[in-house]
Amino acid sequence: MQETTSVQIENCGKTFADGTQALEPINLSIEGGETVVLLGPSGCGKTTLLRIIAGLESPDKGGKILFNGENVTAKMIENRNVGMVFQSYALFPNMTVSENVGYGLKVRKMPARERETRIQEMLDMMQIHDLAERQIDQLSGGQRQRVALARAIAVRPRILLLDEPLTALDALLRDRLRMEIDALLRKLNITAIYVTHDQAEAMALGDRIVVMSKGKIAQVGTPREIYYRPQTDFVADFIGTINRLPGTEKLCRPEDIRIVAPDQASHVGVLAASQFLGDRTRLVLSGITEEDFIVEAPLRKDIPLGSDVPILIDDRFLIDPKAVGA
User: Fold this and answer.
1) CB-count burial class (<10 Å; 0-12, 13-18, 19+) for 94
2) Cβ neighbours of 138 (radius 10 Å)
């Protein structure tokens, strides 16, 4: 197993030629073998930060990128030994699957026999061995993404960088590939930095999540810390669904609320809308606060719209207002 690579991001900001500041100076440490997800809405700076780590963009003056303590800021991407996987796949249409997987090895002048062994290893690992001689235009989106992953890891990069790799795929395939990527990263024990705007992807894949907003880091933490102990209103609103309790600044999650008998209720709302989601039903209640109040519960029967819905909010699961910067 190859040595893992830590990443140190020091004072890295990015201002483009037209004066637009895409990224304010950022500091972040990533441990070797860790999977860190950069999560945030479009335009928050997450892809810009990934491109700086890759060497595709240069940080503003004073910014540094260090791999295992080595300053690589001035190095081009080809000299950093990073693997990249893009949303658009970026595969070569004039090459077969095998040729695509082996492209980086050929550029590095790996001997033909050793190169072929590595290609076969990658095809087996990504379960695309039967596609080896196909052209790229003969592949589905999921197959193309597997080829892109195989090509990226074939060179045994120090760091794997993934930029919204599953966005173009349908929901069922996204879920399947998400699990495969998670298993792959654990197996390889490689340092990975993954960009997404999808909260479910971030929660499923990240050892830690870096939530970004308007070119800044809003919060860094494990998925559980981000979800249950958000440190800002933005993080609380962006990650999952949140309710604000009437008359207080306290917050609660929809799944921490129970529908109870009227004499056990802490609040009563009126059912304004209902969505059956299979394993649970999402209820939208009015009359508890000025905003809609969301409850998610495992209901077997429909509740008529306009009905009173008695609920109990468990104080044990309330989010401390001090933790969200209220």
Assistant:
1) exposed
2) 12
DSSP string for 241-304: --EEPTTSS-EE-GGGEEE--GGG-SEEEEEEEEEE-SS-EEEEEESSSSS-EEEEE--SS---
Contact in structure between 189 and 205 (CB atoms under 8 Å): no
CA angle (142, 192, 214) in 5-degree steps: 95
DSSP reduced 3-state for 204: helix
Residue 201, token pair as written in the block: 């992807």
Angle at 117 between CA 112 and CA 118, to 5 degrees: 95
Place of tokens 């037209």: 18
Using DSSP's 3-state secondary structure scheme, residue 56 falls into coil
- Sheet containing 208-213: give its strands across: 82-86, 159-163, 191-196, 35-39, 208-213, 216-221
For 240, 244, 294, the CA distances from 316, given in Å and listed in that order, are 19, 15, 18
Burial class (CB in 10 A: 0-12, 13-18, 19+), 187: exposed
Report pLDDT digits (tens) over 195-247. 999 998 999 999 999 999 999 999 999 999 999 889 888 998 899 889 988 77
Tell me how crowded residue 149 is: count the other CB atoms within 10 A of its CB.
Answer: 25
What tens digit of pLDDT does each residue of 154-187 get?
A: 888 999 999 998 887 788 888 888 888 888 888 8
